[in-house]
């Protein structure tokens, strides 16, 4: 009985030391051979409050440091690449656009030189025959050169008749191109063609059916077509400057 009482008293004493040590000591310390871990109870609340104070102090310190750095910067330095001239009524809205316009003016030759070069190229291409055009005829557009054969919808012209194609969208050669707005000037490019044949296209089968209704219809269709051969493409370079002036005005 005496030994049991002594053992029970020793256990109670050890438990008391452990509880009191957990409440009143810091993490990592050893008391009576027992390792203590964290604050518990009331002391844990004081730890949380202490951490909040530390975090608030760090935030305040960081904000004050950033404000001090910004105040040390010159206000003119914050402008960066902003063009001060954009505040006035100048023609350019930024330094980049102003520089780009100056470069374009320096790199682009005068308009008179461009027209002269195009006129020379038109003469060379017209004499050599290496010239093409984009025309609109029969509801479609075609890119044509000399001696090409095109198939269009039926037009009112007899076989062997020479016709003049008026709707020219573009004319060009190896080193030049003249684009209309939307059509090229009437006399700038003159294209002549010959009606080779007037016939019909191969038959197209049109089949209709409605299921479970006993409805079926089969019909064939052949479109009336006209075959043209391009005889010549004549250009008049001297009219280029007049047509350009008219479009710009």
Automatic annotation (TrEMBL):
It comes from Porites lobata. Keywords: Ribonucleoprotein, Ribosomal protein, RNA-binding, rRNA-binding. PANTHER family: 50S RIBOSOMAL PROTEIN L21 (PTHR21349), LARGE RIBOSOMAL SUBUNIT PROTEIN BL21M (PTHR21349:SF0). Residues 90-109 are annotated as: Disordered. This is Large ribosomal subunit protein bL21m. Belongs to the bacterial ribosomal protein bL21 family. The keyword Signal does not apply.
